[in-house]
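>> received
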Amino acid sequence: MHDESLLLPSDTQPELPDDKPVVLIVDDTPDNLALLSDTLQASGYAVLVALDGQSALQRLARITPDAVLLDALMPGMDGFETCRQIKADPRNRHLPVIFMTALTDSEHVVQGFRVGGIDYVTKPVKPSEVSARIAAHVQRSRQQRQADMVLEIGMRAALIAAASGEIRWQSDLARQRLARYGSGDAQTEERNGSAESNVKDNLVDDGARLPAPLAEAGPRLPPVLSQWLARWIETGCDLQAAFETAADGARRVARVLGRATRGDWVILLEEFNDAAHTSALGAQFNLTAREAEVLLWVSRGKTNRDIGDILGMAPRTVNKHLEHVFGKLHVETRAAAAAIAAKASTRY
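>> returned
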């Protein structure tokens, strides 16, 4: 076999390319594995192999391939039981399992479908037929996964983008919000885990601003988001990471929800109207404009020094406003004030 890493212990996580579909081949005959592996690699697939059903399940506990090519008759756990256990995991509901069998008895073919198989090929396998069947099922499975994800996302401002910044799909609301990420003069905050920093949004110069409408620029993320996504991936894909930009009284937050398919990411675009939020807090609790602004940022976990930097006032002035806020809310602690503010209204 060309790639010795394919036979690493089943508890080893191999490095797999994002730009190639991955096929797991399960067969107890090494010669069959070698033939099929060479054929699929030549057709542009990345290949993983397992010599038995248990090893296949261990592989699948660590990575989800795009298709499984599964020998029906193997010693120990046969292919039918292996497939049954594969399909018992909800993560594999769209994973195409293609049986390989020398059996032509319809009873065995039916059994393969009953346990969750989607297709079968007869041995001795024809390499060109195997490649064609896998290609069709991989494409169909990816489309189904993306369609399900789109339905789950619903009417939210969400999109699916590749690591390169190419947009695979976007909702109408996401398309509208993306057009507001082209400006280079907004204050930007990037969060990665617990690290926070406030910097000027100088990642995009005037010449790189996103034209309107978005369609004129082609289906790509605005440069500022594309650069952020690339850095996020490079630093280990911390699912708590978010990109924030503030302008015109609104905060815009881009957040990665997770993978759509290998190499593609689901991004949620949220907008928060700080001006409306501040106004509502002031009206509800009889606060001055400054007191409402202080309460808003307290509810977001900012310290007095942070709030002073944001609002352009000394920390001791922030503390005086906060004392007035405590009195009007009838509380004694920052945590209590923050809880009341969050309960009153979390999004505008």
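>> The longest helix spans residues 127-153.
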